[in-house]
Amino acid sequence: QVQLVESGGDLVQAGGSLRLSCAASGRIFSVNAMGWYRQAPGKQREVVATIHSSGSTNYADSVKGRFTISRDNAKNAVYLQMNSLRLENTAVYYCHYRDLILGGTFWGQGTQVTVSS
What we know:
The protein is mainly beta.
């Protein structure tokens, strides 16, 4: 079992920045993928960015150049630096973990990001 705890969600003005953090604990395998997903009201949950334990990253086209995902393998943590935030970025952001050894997948509780005009 893996537990994920997110933090950093807040109310921020358009154009501002925010940094989300996620700490994983439990049965962590060295080969894994972590990432951030978001869900806005009335919309499906969508991937924002992912990062493999090797450091390889992937981003949704809408956030490329504005968001940066990173991780600290020693701390089993993943981060999302969000810059130039827009109103449409308002959503609940969820941390995700998937081990690539046994195939388990886990979700955090979510953290609210609200961008105001």
